[in-house]
Amino acid sequence: MTNPSLQKTPMPELDPDTRSRCFEEVALGYTEEMAKEEAGRCLQCKHKPCMNGCPVSVHIPAFIEKVAAGEFEEAYEIIKSTNSLPAVCGRVCPQETQCEAKCVRGIKGESVGIGRLERFVADYHMKHSTASGEKPVPNGHKVAVVGSGPASLTCAGDLAKLGYGVSVFEAFHTAGGVLMYGIPQFRLPKEVVQAEIDQLKELGVEINTNMVIGKVLSVDELFDMGFEAVFVGTGAGLPSFMGIEGEGLVGVYSANEFLTRINLMKAYRGDYDTPIIHSRRVAVVGGGNVAMDAARCARRLGAEEVSIIYRRSEAEMPARLEEIHHAKEEGIAFKMLTNPVRINGDEQSRVVSLTCVKMELGEPDASGRRRPEPIEGSEFDVEADAVIIAIGNTPNPLIRSTTPGVEANRRGCLVVNEETLETTRPGVFAGGDAVTGAATVILAMGAGKKAAQSIDAYLRKNQI
Amino acid sequence: MFEIKRKRVLNPQMTEMTVAAPYIAKKAQAGQFIILRVNETGERIPLTIADYDREAGTINIIYQIVGKTTMLLNTLEEGDCIQDVVGPLGAASELSEIRRAAVIGGGTGCAIAYPQAKALHAQGSQVTMIAGFRSQELIILADEMKAVSDKLVIMTDDGSNGQKGFVTNALQSEIDAGADFDAVIAIGPLPMMKAVSELTRGYGIKTIVSMNSLMIDGTGMCGGCRVTVGGETKFACVDGPDFDGHLVDFDEAMKRGSMYRKEEEDCREAFRCRLTGGHCHHD
Fold first, then answer.
1. What is the reported pTM?
2. Are residue B153 and residue B198 in the same domain, yes or no?
3. Is residue B173 less than 8 Å (CB to CB) from chain A?
4. CA distance B260 to chain A (A)
């Protein structure tokens, strides 16, 4: 019996007032009843359009059918067979532009809440399962994975399932990459990420932290150590600045620095030593999810006024609608069609304000979005004692500058064969933001999955 | 975990630790640094690799006990472990072209200047080492510095070692006496590096300074360590830590260095309370 409701079963959430003063997770997750109710909305389409929208090809109707039947562990097995990180994906995937965008129920009414169901199933498993998964039989071959973000973890997990001995090398003291340092606790609890990583360890994946490949070991040395293939999933971690006057002032952060201090280094907790400035008025420059995350973190640290400053209009914002909605609920001000031209400081070089210019939208640019153009004479000041620059990141040059034979394009992204994700150097594969430039968790996971298949094919071929 | 093999008190404020870190020891070069985290709740701080022993698989770090993290680090003894040590980070110093160098260290900066002098000495360059301290009892590494330099001048602010004055006074004397340096390497507090750079600018002597900026990751990710060099934004962790002293915007760097002064002071005082059992002004 299909549930005829045109709307998704609502997701329980912490109320905006409570949550804007703490780092507790905002979306609380479905109960078993809610999950079954929502699963009942799935039409079980024969042609499974939703699956085409999933970069890691989760068997969506099949797992939802199990949820509807209350067979949650079975549902988990189905998801887990193609997706290494379901608790993460259920929370941070932009389902509205992927699986849910293709859902037939979305034609008239809201699509099935596929992401919410995925999250429910993953959380249910974490809470109830005690069974440790079967360890794959080792095949005697070793693969090194550089970086430990979503692309790397997916690649590592898939290779480990095939029996490879996988060693992950992470520069930070904690594995997880952007899932740990970037996405905040209230959107993706770090305990959830850690649990997913622990599952990989149970599969036999070895995690080596504090290892900056390109510095302490080169890719060549990894091959010398007996690794037969290397996957590079080092992400896009180099923050872009605007190049305007005043970016060196005290109180100006890259979003990376601000978020890392809070998420990885837990500056919001009294029991950690990481310092952070508690500001009163915070201006966040940028319109993506990272900007929303930074703004919402600033709010939770106690800032009275937090504004998002974006040079285009809200319609062009790259952030997920849900994130924009949550940010607004938490009292973040949106200053659209506004572009900073200068950051102003006091005698102690502390930020006091931003001088901005009003923008208007002209003809579409290369990105297909209407190009913002400054309106002459429209300069005005926005008071701020902290400015967070969240205008994007580019790939870190460390691997490409220390690995002979690995080429990058003009933007610093590694060049790969699109079919195999092999770089210009045989045996070295790459995927995720290191190849595409800053994108999403799930696209990186899709790439990690594809690379694992290619690495397996490459190593099998080499053995013949 | 990284075991402390040896702990040596250099003066009442400075301590040297020899730490087992075989991978780092194998690759370390003069001018590079590590980032450490003392324990699970600790912050990450950068420290220069003061020395290394590739065969023993150890690196040496020297720290001045100034804040909570260094106080905490100093509670560890031989046989204890540091939670995290990552490195070697930063670009190695480019010393191969230098034939006659003045290597200048100020205070803890001597710990960073020493490996540079050692590398220069090892490649056969002439090394004049100038070290500055506030007073005689704070002098560190005197024997080590002497062993790797052709001439060692130690200055004290208060003249307690018989040589009163700043490192710039000593450098000026050397230049006046006809020393023909093709490079000056200055490492120490920002005002000292600024003063040295201003002095050498007039003589057109290439001057290299080492920027010990605030940073988190040390791989170019946070941008917290950015310094303006010749009008361009550079990251001390990957583009440096060495930069041309004549191009660095020291004034901006000094202000950025004080970014967390209040938070650091609060944190240190709270920790001092715990160490001393509550005898502090927070009571």
1. 0.91
2. yes
3. no
4. 7
